[in-house]
Amino acid sequence: MDTLLWIVIIAAVVVAGLYYLRQRGVTSARSLQDAQAEARRWVERLGGQVYSLDTGDDPAARQALSDAAERFTAAGSQVDQARSVQQYRLAQQTAYEGLYYVRAARTSLGLDPGPELPPIPGQQQAGAVTEDRQVSVEGHDYEASPQPGARTQHYYPGGMVAGRPVPRGWYSEPWWKPALVAGAWGVGTYLVASSLFGGMAGIGWDGGYDAGYDAGMDANDAGADGGDYGGDAGGGDYGGDAGGGDFGGGGDFGGGADFGGGGDFGGF
Q: CB–CB of 176/189 below 8 Å?
């Protein structure tokens, strides 16, 4: 009798385990399908906005829409290659970025930008440009402004680039792109950011650019004295680890935010 009871118990456990695994597989497959459908929906919405908006002869709007088109292409590629829920969410995030550029283009054209979008990772920490600023770095002029203009035609929605904040606003040129491509900030990019945003109200981690820049200079001087530019005494990275490093700390643009298909961007 005891043997039979144990056989029944073991069989029940096996059946329960198999049922759990099956249900888990069904749930996982459903989650993947939902994430795929949600990402595709936003990518398609971005495509609709890109192809329907006429920028006319407005150079700032035309540039913003061109950036939106790049995000549309990238998001579509990400969806096609995605094999996990997280990868689909990253594609959805790229589509959100594109829709921010569409909003910027509409703003430059004097149109209603449409409903607000959920923030992208690092956007709130990075802050926004709050005043017109013009600086010269190594003989080259750079400008930043809260609004599009004849000399500020490049929009950025704000966020973390290679671990450091780039505020939302309009710029004379996309000076942050080298860091975006390389995944690290070079000396020139660092100097531009330090000059543009030092002391500007509304920037995340206010004063971080100045402090990081000054510390980076000190690190460089120490490295030069030791015969190794930015070497052992300098901490290795100009304005980097020894220099107080990260402007604004640990954000990761592209990190794991789940927008879950928040606001509806349609209805323009």
A: yes
What span, in angstroms and rounded, lies between the C-alpha atoms of 40 and 35?
A: 9
Which one-letter amino acid corresponds to residue 134?
A: Q
The label of the residue with tokens 């029940």 reads 12
> To which residue do tokens 């149109």 refer?
111
Residues in the chain: 268
CA 80 and chain centroid, separation: 20
Whether 193 and 166 have beta carbons less than 8 Å apart is answered as: yes
Q: Contact, 53 vs 101, CB < 8 A?
A: no
Residue 220 and residue 229 in contact, taking contact as beta carbons nearer than 8 Å: yes
> What is the residue whose two structure tokens read 């995000």?
71
The three-class DSSP label of residue 221 is helix
Residue 247: name the closest of 142, 128, 125 by CA: 125
Q: Taking the C-alpha atoms of 116, 52, 101 and 133 in order, what is their torsion angle to the nearest 10 degrees?
A: -110
Q: For 232, how many CA atoms within 13 A lie in the half-sphere containing its CB? A: 2
What is the pLDDT tens value at each position of the chain, 268 positions in all? 677 777 777 877 787 777 777 777 767 788 899 999 999 999 999 999 999 999 999 999 999 999 999 999 999 999 999 999 999 999 999 999 999 999 999 999 999 999 899 889 899 999 999 999 999 999 999 999 999 999 999 999 999 999 999 999 999 999 999 999 999 999 999 999 999 998 898 785 444 454 444 444 444 444 444 444 333 333 334 333 333 333 333 333 333 333 333 334 343 3
